[in-house]
Amino acid sequence: MDPELTAPNRFGRLIERRDDRDFPYYNGEPMTVATWKWLLIIVACVLGFLVLILVPSSDEITGLIPRILFPAIPLTLFIVFTGKHWSAIFRRLTGRDWLTMVVFWLLNLAVTSLVGILVAALFGANANTAADGLADAGGAEILAFFVGTGIQLFGEEIFTLLPFLAVMYLFYSKAKLSRKTSIILAWLITAVWFGAAHLPTYGWNVAQALLVIGTARLVLTLAFIRTKNIAVSTGAHILNDWSTFGFVILTSAAMTAA
């Protein structure tokens, strides 16, 4: 077994499973992605994000275009640079993986609800208006919304976890830090990165974006750290946001009917 996978180099069972899965690319397995390539991949993540927030759309159906481009831009470059090894961030989903999605969805709801209450009391909070007005929209619009947000949430995982792997590689292979330290630093840095990207969504409320959304990102990234599978963190993320959006739509529809 790779010495980096031995117990002293891994986190406890609550964080990392005791299996032969490890993060790809940081230690030359299954390949090394050069520093300049990682930097271009991060630039591509930023470009995809700019397309998402700057390309105008008149409705949820036309909004599918920027939502698709959001993950497609960085993922395409990532595939170009990694070739046949691009799929190392994906794993075949097992029953345990599906259960892990649900566990991290519920954990995320619990943790972010608590943090959200504290932040709102101290700094105020702005609502996410993504689902506003959908209760009165047609079925096609609602379907396009959920399909589009599903794609966008996958894009948010790409936007976070490719930089996570890049930062981990830089700290481990270049700065010669330990595996554990590299993971922790990448985990924290990309949580701030993800939270900062949500500043426009929450009216530039720094505390809400960095503390509430950043905390949510810490939980979701833990799903990837545990499983080494972007499909699991994406699933937990979709369950979290779709349940929230669905609640808003149903509540709004009920109030309108009343």
From TrEMBL:
Q: Single GO molecular-function term? A: endopeptidase activity
Asked if the keyword Hydrolase belongs to this entry, the reply reads: yes
The UniProt entry, under InterPro entries, shows: Rce1/LyrA-like_dom
Alphabetically ordered keywords of this record:
Hydrolase, Membrane, Metalloprotease, Protease, Transmembrane, Transmembrane helix
Residue ranges occupied by any CAAX prenyl protease 2/Lysostaphin resistance protein A-like domain in the UniProt entry: 142-242
From what organism does this protein derive? Leucobacter viscericola
Q: Is Transmembrane there in the keyword field?
A: yes
Q: Per the UniProt entry, what are the Gene Ontology biological process annotations, in alphabetical order?
A: CAAX-box protein maturation; proteolysis
Transmembrane domains' residue ranges: 38-56, 68-86, 98-123, 143-171, 183-200, 206-225
Q: Where would one find the signal peptide in this protein?
A: none
Q: Name one Pfam family in it.
A: Rce1-like
> Would you tell me the protein name for this molecule?
CPBP family intramembrane metalloprotease
